[in-house]
Amino acid sequence: MSHPIESLRARIEALSVPDNPLSSLERLSVVTCGELHHLEFYGTCFGDAYTDLCETLSLPTVAASILSLSIRGPDDGANGTKNWDLEPLISHGQDFPVLETFSIELNQPADHNRTIIASSYEEDGVIARLAAKCPRLAYLTVPSAPSPEFFNTSLPALRFLSVDAGYDAQNFLRNFGRSGGFPSLRCFEWGEYSERYMDNWQESCAPFFDYEALFSSSAFRTVTRFVVRQPCLSTEQIERLRILRPDIQFLLVRYSHEYARNK
Predict the structure, then answer these.
(1) How many whole angstroms separate alpha carbon 44 and alpha carbon 23?
(2) Is the pLDDT confidence value at 262 over 50?
(3) Per-residue confidence (pLDDT) for residue 255, from 0 to 100
(4) Which residues contact 208 (CB under 8 A, 6 or more apart)?
(5) pTM passes above 0.85
(6) Are 218 and 255 in contact (CB under 8 A)?
(7) Percent helix, percent strand, percent coil in the chain, to nearest 5
(8) Phi and psi angles of residue 181, each rounded to the nearest 5 degrees, phi first
(9) Euclidean distance between CA atoms 133 and 130, whole angstroms
């Protein structure tokens, strides 16, 4: 009898239409290390393949064998949103005792759909509930800001944290600065709220005070590398942050939202 993960891989492969372009072929890549597995899923968040993935990985014997899980897919969405629903993955009570890496694709500059983690539009604390099931989590990448409960989770092994604000930053930087932090965290990446087509979109971005408080906090003391994407900050404010922590590697990422039309 084949392993449940190999059976899953075969089922997902069978769902793809061979003549479709590579960008639309759903697939599961599996690397096996002894009895443990590194998984990379590529597919749509709305399809049968993703549903099958969540149901299979939620089986206790399978969940106990996952070392890493990466999830990404084509730029497909509904009403401008591509929402990865994690509820089916975590709602069965199982833990992921050896999971070290969990990654859901971040938004890219040319994407037509905003990638988030949600059943519909709200994160609803699901990232904190997932993290609580992963005591060995070391690398976490998520396209939605976690709720305040995330900082009540003990993650002693967390070394890398990359977060996009998504549709609601949930005061993430403020909550981070007020938290006890994570003892092993070395790299923190933050993608600012970026719905720039909205009126008064700047009001949904983290204020400079939250950045300043974070950089001055004990929670941030372990961080040696900070990456900020699309901040709503002035050059002077960026320099003030650099002065607060001259000892860290500070990377600033900005890109244009304007694209030329084909004529």
Answers:
(1) 11
(2) no
(3) 83
(4) 233, 237
(5) yes
(6) no
(7) 30, 20, 50
(8) 75, -165
(9) 5
Of the candidates 260, 246, 251, 252, the one whose C-alpha atom is nearest the C-alpha of residue 231 is: 252
By mean pLDDT, which of 4-18, 63-77, 222-236 is the weakest? Answer: 4-18
Q: With CA atoms as reference, report the closest residue to 49 among 82, 71, 27, 67.
A: 27
Tell which residue, 29, 39, 57, 32, has the closest CA to residue 101: 39
Q: How far apart are CA 115 and CA 15, in angstroms?
A: 23
**Within 13 A of 65's CA, how many CA atoms are on the CB side?**
19
| Listed residue (234, 221, 231, 222) closest to 251, CA to CA | 231
Q: How far apart are CA 263 and CA 261, in angstroms?
A: 6
As separate numbers, helices (DSSP H) first and strands (DSSP E) second, the chain gives: 8, 11
Distances (CA, A) of 194 to 26, 154, 232, 239, 242: 29, 30, 9, 21, 23
**How far is residue 39's CA from residue 50's CA, in Å, rounded to a whole number?**
13
pLDDT digit string, tens, across residues 11-62: 999 987 777 777 778 999 999 999 999 999 999 999 999 999 999 999 999 9
CA angle 193/198/204 to nearest 5° reads 35
